[in-house]
Specification:
Elements: H1 2-17, H2 21-32, H3 38-54, H4 58-71, H5 76-89, H6 92-105, H7 110-123, H8 126-139, H9 144-156, H10 160-173, H11 178-199
Length: 201
C-alpha cells in the first residue's frame, strides 16, 4: 500500500505542477478515500483544499479545512487558509476573523498579518492596509507577496513615486519575477491615465 501511496502522490504532484488541477484532484481524492493514517489525511485535506480553492470550489475547500480545525484546533495555518477561502467567497468579515485567530495563535507570523492587510485593502481601508503591509515588510523584508501587495496599493492610491521605489527594491531581489513585470506595466498605465486627465483640465 505504501508504494502505491507514493506513486499516487508523485503522479498527483506532477499533474498539479503542470496545471492539470482537476486530474490532480481526482488522484488526491482517490488516495484520501483509501488511507487511514491521520497525518497523511491531514496533509491531504490541506492539499485538496488548496486545489479546490484554485478551481473556485470554495464549499469543498472550506469543508476540508474545517475538518482539519476539528482535528487540531491549535494549528494556526488552517485559520490562515480559511481567511483566504472567505476572501474567495467575498466574505471579508469572516476572512478578517480567521486571520485574527491565526495571529492570536501565532502572533509573530508576518504572513498571517499580510492576510489581515489584504482584507483591509479589499475593504478600501488603504491607509490601514499600507501600514500593515509595511509592518509585514519590517518583520520580513523577504516577503515578496507583501511587497507586491504594497506596490499594488501604492499604484492604486496614486503614490507613484513611492511605488517606483518599491518596484526597484523588488527588482533588486528578483528582476525576472512575473509579478514585478506586471506591476511595472500597471505603473505605466497609471502614469498615462494621470497625464490624460491633466490634459483634460
Amino acid at each position: 500500500m505504501s508504494l502505491r501511496v507514493d506513486e499516487i502522490l508523485i503522479r498527483a504532484d506532477d499533474l498539479k505542477q503542470r496545471g492539470k488541477l482537476y486530474k490532480a484532484i481526482t488522484l488526491y481524492e482517490t488516495l484520501y478515500n483509501e488511507v487511514i493514517d491521520e497525518n497523511l489525511l491531514y496533509w491531504l485535506r490541506l492539499t485538496l483544499a488548496d486545489l479546490y480553492f484554485w478551481v473556485k470550489d470554495f464549499d469543498k475547500a472550506e469543508k476540508l479545512i474545517l475538518e482539519n480545525i476539528e482535528s487540531n484546533s491549535n494549528d494556526s495555518f488552517n485559520y490562515y487558509y480559511m481567511g483566504f477561502i472567505m476572501i474567495g467567497r467575498g466574505d471579508l468579515i469572516k476572512a478578517e476573523k480567521y486571520f485574527e485567530i491565526a495571529l492570536k495563535l501565532d502572533p509573530d507570523n508576518s504572513e498571517y498579518l499580510r492576510g489581515l492587510a489584504w482584507v483591509e485593502f479589499l475593504k478600501g481601508n488603504y491607509e490601514e492596509a499600507e501600514n500593515l503591509f509595511r509592518e509585514v515588510l519590517n518583520k520580513d523584508p523577504e516577503n515578496s507577496a507583501a511587497l507586491d501587495n504594497l506596490i499594488e496599493l501604492l499604484i492604486k492610491t496614486g503614490k507613484l513615486e513611492e511605488a517606483k521605489l518599491e518596484i526597484e527594491k523588488f527588482r533588486e531581489k528578483d528582476p525576472k519575477d512575473w509579478q514585478i513585470l506586471y506591476r511595472v506595466q500597471e505603473l505605466r498605465n497609471k502614469q498615462r491615465e494621470i497625464k490624460r486627465n491633466r490634459g483634460k483640465l
